[in-house]
Amino acid sequence: MGIVSEQAIDDFQELIDKVEEPLKTTFKNVHQGYLRETLIRFLKARDWNVIKAHTMLVECLRWRVDNQIDSILSKPIVPSGLYRDVRDSQLIGMSGYTREGLPVFAIGVGLSTFDKASVHYYVQSHIQINEYRDRVLLPSVSKKNGRPITTCVKVLDMTGLKLSALSQIKLVTIISTIDDLNYPEKTNTYYVVNAPYIFSACWKVVKPLLQERTRKKVHVLSGCGKDELLKIMDYTSLPHFCRRGSSGSSHQTQSVDCFSVDHPFHQQLYNYVKHHYETQGQAEPAKQGSFHVGFPEPVAERVEIAKTIESKLHKFENCNGLSKPVDDRKASP
Question: Where is the CRAL-TRIO domain positioned along the sequence (predicted)?
């Protein structure tokens, strides 16, 4: 439904106003003062069904309380070498902002290996980035722009996507399910770039399984996507892998690699978490193991998508040329 239903929002707020502590407190960390926008996100996620949206939000709040999500930004991943390993194998970063003020998150889908730490560290890292985005970045950019900005855009780099991705499907499904159930409608648009043939083949079978509102968010761009992305952001906000002509070995490219632990975004995030840990009276973070979060059962749509991708990838196991770039003319869905 594209039309905002004021009655649905009012009814939803009336129900949420009745939730008791500690759900009420954690809800403040969710909406950050942008109550209406938050209610709309959950309503969109449940096709504007107030009862279903209410159930979804209450379950989200309980998940936050049960897993102490409100305190996750004071739980650094230590030692720093382990955090570097996580960053080197879970490629995600923020490269800048669109001209409308939305944060631009870059994700290295094809080259992420998730093989240098336990699954719990990767989940912890992902949730920390979500919480830092929602509780620090978005409120700050909203204040700067004088209007609510509660979503971001994501640029997905498919460079290097191979059959090895098969071993990562379970972890990716866990992370995407956490997002679906607890951070719904936080991504305005997904831009897919550097797509090899194997992605094109998988996208063809996955696309029909997605809900219409999700399909409309996904844009598969030709090549590195530079020309299209420059229509919505300045060059300085382009993820490094979208800067055609840049040498991977150049100092300039390395300095703007938004996946790197040395990038300003990751430095700011890590220092923020470390500072909040230290305010609890601790001088230096001590290794205490990962921050374990309960993994929700994947929704039926995610299960079907994962099975479909696995099936398709298995069919390619004996094929050659899986990393061949997709023809630009075939890049659009």
Answer: 79-239
In the numeric block, the tokens 């009814």 are attached to 11
The answer to whether the beta carbons of residues 232 and 59 sit under 8 Å apart is no
Closest CA to 154 of 51, 54, 84, 232: 232
Q: Are strands 92-97 and 103-108 parallel, antiparallel or unpaired?
A: antiparallel
Q: How many CB atoms lie within 10 A of CB 95?
A: 25
Q: Where are the alpha helices (DSSP H) in 146-182?
A: 169-182
Are the C-beta atoms of residues 76 and 49 closer than 8 Å to each other?
no
Count how many Cα atoms sit within 13 Å of the Cα of residue 130 in the half-sphere of its side chain. Answer: 24
Per DSSP, the chain holds a count of helices (H) and strands (E) of 14, 5
Radius of gyration of the chain (CA): 20
Read off the pLDDT band of 112 (50, 70, 90): very high
* C-alpha–C-alpha distance, residues 262 and 254, integer Å: 10
CB-hemisphere CA count at 13 Å for 77? 27
| Contact assessment for residue 158 and residue 55, using Cβ atoms and an 8 Å cutoff | no
Separation in Å, CA 224 to CA 194, 266, 327: 5, 23, 12
Average pLDDT over residues 261-282: 89
Domains assigned to the chain:
6-66 (1.10.8), 72-278 (3.40.525.10)
Rounded Cα gap, residues 115 and 109, in angstroms? 14
Alpha carbon 311 to chain centroid, angstroms: 25
